[in-house]
Design goal:
This protein has two domains: 72 residues, Arc Repressor Mutant, subunit A, CATH 1.10.10; 142 residues, 2-Layer Sandwich (Endonuclease, Chain A). The chain has an eight-stranded mixed β-sheet with strand order 4-10-9-8-5-6-7-11, sandwiched between helices. It has a three-stranded antiparallel β-sheet with strand order 1-3-2. Helix 9 links the parallel strand 6 and strand 7. The longest helix is centred in the middle third of the chain and has 37 residues. It is of the alpha+beta class. Helix 6 packs parallel to helix 8. It has ten helices and eleven strands.
């Protein structure tokens, strides 16, 4: 006669959702098939309150029946194995539903990450904040710009920014309209600047691609305005710039000046 549940059997029952108290009741019940509540309490050393609570749980699982005169009758072995199969089917449905629900949730989360974050800046100080963010990002910068227009909008800050950028070792790659100011700056070798000129570019602002961000700035109007986008939209702008960079290199009317 088995006096206690083997450890592996007990662990298996717990994995099926049985409590320690319920496990303690199953051995004597399956051994004797039918017992009184008093006999169960005496054999398991459980209090009547704990015993009744566990029996109600087993009854809810339809594994035991409470008969007259406080008699407890357990299901047959075949019925118990059939119950396990039913739990397997029910839980499979639960897990399938959970998988479907969570797949939808995770897809919505993934889609949300594709929405670019946009930050709005206004005024000279706002545009300076964008430039400081470029320095903080610390990555090489690509884009379209006109230094002549930058000086008109930001004054001496342009040269202050350039010095900070050089100290951080950040190189710029710019497509710029051909004018005296841009040509002068392109000849300053120590400025870590790669320039390609365009005879057909008119730009009242600039676009800067740096790290995972894109800054779109306009100097048109009374106050400069800027937007900084982050996220996958950066790759779109980078692709457009790479294409334009190669096109300007290929045009006979354009020349490449590489600053070291």
């Amino acid at each position: 006669m088995i006096n206690s549940l083997p450890l592996h059997t007990r662990q298996t029952l717990k994995s099926l959702g049985f409590t320690e108290t319920e496990c303690s009741l199953l051995l004597p019940l399956f051994t004797q098939k039918k017992m009184s509540v008093r006999e169960l309490s005496k054999q398991t050393a459980l209090s009547f309150d704990a015993l009744h609570y566990a029996l109600r749980a087993l009854e809810k699982k339809k594994l035991v029946g409470l008969k007259k005169h406080d008699t407890v009758e357990v299901c047959s072995s075949q019925e118990f194995l059939a119950w396990i199969e039913e739990q397997k089917r029910v839980n499979a449905e639960v897990y399938d539903d959970a998988k479907s629900t969570l797949r939808t949730f995770l897809s919505s989360v993934a889609e949300a990450t594709w929405k670019p974050e946009v930050i709005y800046y206004e005024g000279v100080e706002g545009i300076k904040a964008i430039y400081e963010d470029m320095l903080l990002e610390g990555k090489d910068i690509y884009g379209w710009r006109d230094i002549e227009k930058l000086h008109s909008a930001l004054g001496t800050y342009v040269d202050e920014y350039i010095e900070k950028r050089i100290k951080k070792g950040i190189r710029t790659y710019g497509i710029m309209p051909r004018n005296p100011t841009n040509i002068e700056y392109s000849k300053k070798k120590r400025q870590l600047r790669n320039v390609r000129f365009s005879d057909h570019l008119t730009i009242e602002g600039e676009i800067r691609i740096y790290g995972s961000k894109v800054a779109v700035i306009t100097f048109h109007g009374k106050r400069p305005v800027g937007f900084v986008f982050s996220g996958p939209i950066t790759a779109l702008f980078q692709g457009i710039f790479d294409h334009a960079w190669q096109c300007e290199n290929a045009r006979g009317s354009c020349r490449s000046l590489v600053g070291g």
